[in-house]
Amino acid sequence: MAVSNQDEEDLLLDSLTYQRDDLADRITNLEDLRKNIPLDNSRVSTVSDTRISASLGKLDTLPLELVHEVILALDLQSLTNLRAVSSTARALVNSNPAYRNVLTHAPDAIRAYITTSLASSFNIAQLLDTLCTQLCALCNDFGAFLFLPNCIRCCWACLTQHPDLLPISAGHARVIFGLTKAAAGKVPVMQTIPGLYKMRLKSCHMIRTEPLVSKLTARRIGSAIHGSREKMEAHVAKIRAKQDAAYEKKIAIYHEELAERFEKWERERPSFEEVRAAPMIKKPAAPPFSGDVDQKDDDVRRLLGVIPFPTLDRRTGRRQVGVSCKGCTNTLPIELIPNEFYPQGIGSGHAQYDGRKRELARMFTDEGYLKHYAECGRAQSLWEFKSKGPSSPL
Ligand SMILES: [Zn+2]
Ligand SMILES: [Zn+2]
């Protein structure tokens, strides 16, 4: 019996793609998130039973269309609080098409926003918009993850490599984006979720919550208060040059003092006790700008503000989590790529190494995969081998 095109496509997708549980396992533990934030209000309700009533107060007096407008505009935290008021309020919020879509297809995103204290910074309309996109906001690949601090979609390669997707401390953001204390207060702070995070080669058990902010937001606010990004960068560069010059002076004095001391010791040959008792010459601290190094794949902060995020087709209601190509990934694991491919180590920007790394983590929608298949020689060979069976001379 001849197979239809659709059947062949389904078979091809079944045989040549797989879901990336390995990547999802490296970030926030969704089981814990679901246990802690059930979204059924049995645990999150902060309202006592005596206050629960069928009335919605002022909301009751508005026409239903306006109530739904209000729901769309309310931030996720206010919406969660409203759902906790009564079963009527909860039913009303749940009946909002945007909320219902997110609750049905990506409830973990709402949970993650509540847990990270970022729920006051975004509303359900923004979250639904991002849910209905497919591409990483930083490149043109499919993005299977949600970068919480900006409510944008991203791919694994950008998540672990792109300089803007490294969440940093509010203090460092102030330094590198020239923020005043008041301006820094406008940058939403993400309280990271404790748990086990797996980097490229090692794991990190985050015991405490870590307050971090988005570089993208801090830069936007910095650019706004300085007039433009160029002006902000010029201002920061000026401060940085001053700090660097001061540091160079201090470090030169430090080396001079060290040299003098060794010369003196050469001349005077002090006893071991005298050497031990001599006050230490303290090395000057590096200037604030150099206080934070981005370790790319090995920087746990990159894994703290992200969850797997499906994509939803508004028109058909179809949800997809994304798949990877067995042809592209069933080859050499990245840890075993010979050293000559990345002589400077991780994040070296070495094109061949970074390209292979992107390929290994690349994900597609089903439609995207079928286009990729047409260009992927390795997937085509695999398909040919699979179709012919193990007795194939291949
Ligand atoms: Zn990307
Ligand atoms: Zn491929």
Automatic annotation (TrEMBL):
Pfam families: F-box (PF00646). Coiled coil: none annotated. Residues 56-102 form the F-box domain. It comes from the Eukaryota. This is F-box domain-containing protein. It comes from Discina gigas.
